[in-house]
Design goal:
This protein is an alpha/beta fold. It has a single domain, classed as Rossmann fold. Helices cover 48% and strands 19% of the residues. It has 10 helices and 7 strands. The chain has a 7-stranded mixed β-sheet with strand order 4-3-2-1-5-6-7. A hairpin with a 2-residue loop joins strand 3 and strand 4. The protein is globular.
Length: 223
Amino acid sequence: MTLAIFDLDQTLLSGDSDHAWGEFLVESGLVDADAVLTANDRFFADYQAGRLDIQAYLEFVLEFLIDKDPAELASLHQRFMDAKIIPMIQPGTQALLDQHRAQGHTLMIITATNRFITGPIADYLGIEHLIACEAEQIDGRYTGRPIGIPSFREGKVTRLQTWLDHHQQTLTGAWFYSDSHNDLPLLSLVDHPIAVNPDARLQAEAEQRGWSIISLREAHADH
């Protein structure tokens, strides 16, 4: 098994699905606009700066889900997909995924965004394997509590290693695509680290280490 691993936000997508979910809830009139927008933007700035408190952020994002009817949440997420996510899929994403499928690679998304938001996105993209931040459910309803090790920074490496052990696989020959310096721990481990529209810190690191730098902003980008 050769893994082709993809970060999601700002990599396969042109924006951030977590941040877009907050905007979607505000635009739908489902949350206090001022409070959510302020917190949403603050957490996003912390993420970009490399100082995100992932536990606090997960609790903020998951709060809306607490004890909601699962059918109601599924319907809401479908509207979110149509309004925010599908238009956010990078023009070059499908060709890149197809390229790896054609080589017989096993596709995986690994993301710091929670599974409620990202599960349907992975399904839409036809990517079978997803490692995401997990949210506790009791009797099919969310409690608002994050559980397990968050798949963020070094946590992505920890969660991926657990997955590899479970599937009796290794990272030999693996690819990993990301836009963010937050993913340097995992990028440093794979045989094929690829910076996608990288932030300034990852751009500098990729140039220094001789890693490939690509863009998915065009449908026929050079991969």
